[in-house]
Fold:
Amino acid sequence: METLEQLISTNCKNFEQFFQSPPALVAYAPGRINIIGEHTDYNQGLAMPCAINRWVTVSISPRTDDQVHVVSIDFDGKMIFSLNSIYEPKTLWEQYIYGCITLFMQMHSIPSGFNAMISGNVPIGAGVSSSAALEVAFVNALNEFFKVELNGLEIIKLCQQVEHQYLHVKSGLLDQYASQFSKKDKVLMLDFHSLSHTYINAETTGYVWVLCDSNIKRTLAGSKYSERVQETQAALKNLHEQISDITEFKDIELEHLSLLKDIVQQKRMRHYLSENYRVKAVAEALKNHDFILFGKLLTASHISLREDYEVSCKELDYLVELALDTDYCLGSRMMGGGFGGCTINLVKEEYVKEFCNKIQEGYYRKFNIEGIINIYETVNGAGTYPVHKNVQYHA
Ligand code: GLA
Structure:
């Protein structure tokens, strides 16, 4: 798999070939995995993601007219429009890009058009946030190129608005946050109430993270994501009507759950509260190198996502079952929005090969689908790289 330097270099070459001049700068943003803290972000909860060594790169240069020309290598497409007229995006990737440009322009005036080239190696639909990497890379490119000086939080909030307004998914900030703020060898301890983070050493001596992609691709928009957002909002409203002091999710405690007469709302909130607890417990386990406890918390998270939050699917459940059936895995759970995508597993380093073989064989036997196994490295979050100046890039 390509390194960031290789991706940047290929992107620049493609840019130069296509636009007949080199780009002025390249921005990049990584995909992410999430160790724990699922479906908590949009309700001001906790999560623990980190960025992975897969990136989207965006190169950009000025134009003298008001045209925008954007080329996507991976989607083999091109969009051209004028800054002064309305454009109808034809595909999903265009929708993301058009959303980024339009929202950026609503807040900051753009003096001229530009050319941009997008390429990357974040697997699409595999639950490692290729869309967040695309938005974050693109907005970082615009920000740096037009010298707007948005800070990291402003950048990711803009990206989140792209999801809300252009994709109509009321997602939280988990993916964009991880893509922008991660640090190599660390996991982020994210608090979505205060929108703040700390870093924890990601070291798992003797164990590695193995990602098993179910190869089931379901987009969030088509899934029950929005339904979960509404159900939890309704639960909060319900509790507020009974106890006026409860105005935010952070005010809700376990003892309040029995006040929710709607059993579905009760289950959703039970997941939310228990998952926040697990994030804190995993942080402690990681600091203490207690990987047995760590693994148990991961598996408990899966059970909660499956039973209480009901965002798993039979393929993900089976991948977890297979993983736990081996003697090499301390814990396993579905990762990301759910209904497809991948599982994350904490596996004994010396048995990784055996583990991967068992999972792939067992999964294929049951569903006739090739599962894809990946082991990623942690990397730094998004950044930019000026091409003209002879600046050394440090990953
Ligand atoms: C998707 C969303 C995130 C988050 C996760 C579930 O990845 O984009 O905001 O809600 O699902 O934790």
